[in-house]
Specification:
Layout: E1 6-17, E2 20-31, E3 35-39, H1 46-54, E4 61-66, E5 69-70, E6 81-85, H2 96-106, H3 111-124, H4 140-152, E7 158-162, H5 170-187, E8 190-195, H6 198-204, E9 207-212, E10 215-220, H7 222-227, H8 232-237, E11 241-252, E12 255-260, E13 263-268, E14 278-284, E15 289-291, E16 300-312, E17 315-321, E18 327-333, E19 345-350, E20 355-358
Parallel strand pairs: 3-8, 3-9, 6-7, 7-8
Antiparallel strand pairs: 1-2, 1-4, 4-5, 9-10, 11-12, 11-14, 12-13, 14-20, 15-19, 16-17, 16-19, 17-18
Helix pairs in contact: 2-3, 2-4, 3-4
């Protein structure tokens, strides 16, 4: 396998507004041809980071390198970087063709080359036949395609996308997710994408940088972030998880015994666990199972009271209360629905590898 080429490097990036630190010393390397997403709640520093890369904001300290060149103080128009915003920012007095061609026209490119490039972009963004329409005559999805085409026609080394699908309805949003990913693969251009939508990040990204309070909590593949979160914040931000308070009884080799609500349960160990330590065990709701009777296979099992159960089409949501008052949310397929009613004693079980120990960072700012 050839070594990946680093296209963008962020080194020790800080940004402070008055006394508020929006970006708190982040480092990041983005590879050529990669689709990387900055994911996190509102106010975590995603957009500020993107604006620094674009040159629309100067960092308080730190550096930005593009293709090995320090561009930290370079003007936005001199960077081989383009940005697509949520609000499209199309020219309302220009038709689709002129909007897409605008950047090349500004550069004085030959009209025949412009036409060829615009035709390529119209094909890529499925806008053939819409050349003469004005932005006001387009749907939200079509306007966003024009905005993307206008950025891609300049062949930037890096395309920044700031919640570009945020204004679209769910069905169109999902369609555009697939189209954007296909465009990125076709062109091989590096995308840095911003969203607070976890599903969007997981389905589109090669890697995800999960942000909180101006820092990266975890930088990982979608699978790595979902299956092996390192902190309570990472576990709870992606998907639906249960965070059970546990005490480590004994750790040996790659396994630790946990005390959870009076039950002794094995879990795959990590090197930071020490006996007697209070821990959090992350359990995905869809990885849990319910039964009226004990399951006769090796697994982790607790007993509790079913306090709520709700039919939701293809799945059932159940809530189980453990002896110490902790609760488990369980999502099971209705294909194998059981006759379980609130108040019943139930066995909740999971495979050992489904439980992941995480650090408790819930109180951190």
């Amino acid at each position: 396998m050839p070594e990946k080429k680093v296209l963008l490097s962020l080194r020790g990036l800080h940004k402070t507004f008055d006394t508020q630190e929006a970006v708190a010393g982040i480092d990041l390397e983005v590879y050529e041809g990669e689709f990387i997403t900055l994911l996190g709640p509102s106010g975590c520093g995603k957009t500020t980071t993107l604006r620094i890369i674009a040159g629309l904001e100067m960092p308080s300290s730190g550096s930005v390198f593009l293709d090995g060149k320090d561009i930290t103080r370079l003007a936005p128009e001199k960077r081989e970087v383009n940005t697509v915003f949520q609000n499209y920012a199309l020219f309302p007095h220009m038709n689709v063709y002129k909007n897409i061609a605008y950047g090349l026209t500004l550069r004085g490119v030959d009209k025949n080359i412009i036409k060829q490039k615009v035709d390529e972009m119209l094909d890529l963004t499925q806008l053939k036949g819409y050349e003469k329409r004005m932005p006001s005559q387009l749907s939200g999805g079509q306007r966003q395609r024009v905005a993307i085409a206008r950025s891609l026609i300049l062949s930037p080394k890096l395309l920044l996308l700031d919640e570009p699908l945020g204004a679209l309805d769910l069905q169109l949003r999902r369609q555009m997710q697939q189209e954007l990913k296909q465009m990125q693969r076709t062109l091989g251009i590096t995308f840095i994408y911003i969203t607070h939508d976890q599903e969007e990040a997981i389905t589109m990204s090669d890697r995800i940088a999960l942000m909180r309070a101006g820092r990266f909590v975890q930088l990982d593949t979608p699978r790595g972030l979902y299956e092996q979160p390192r902190t309570a914040f990472a576990a709870s931000f992606i998907g639906e998880t249960n965070l059970l308070t546990a005490t480590a009884q004994a750790a040996k080799d790659d396994e630790v015994l946990l005390d959870i609500a009076g039950f002794t349960l094995p879990c795959t160990c990590t090197d930071w666990v020490t006996p007697g330590e209070k821990l959090l065990l992350s359990l995905r709701a869809e990885r849990l199972h319910l039964s009226k009777t004990p399951v006769p296979v090796p697994c982790c099992r607790v007993t509790g009271e079913l306090v709520h159960t709700q039919y939701a089409g293809g799945e059932r949501l159940s809530v189980v209360s453990l002896p110490d008052g902790q609760t488990l949310r369980v999502r099971t397929s209705t294909e194998t629905d059981q006759d379980l009613a609130p108040g019943a004693t139930v066995y909740c079980w999971w495979n050992q590898e489904s439980g992941v120990l995480v650090r408790d960072d819930r109180e951190e700012a």
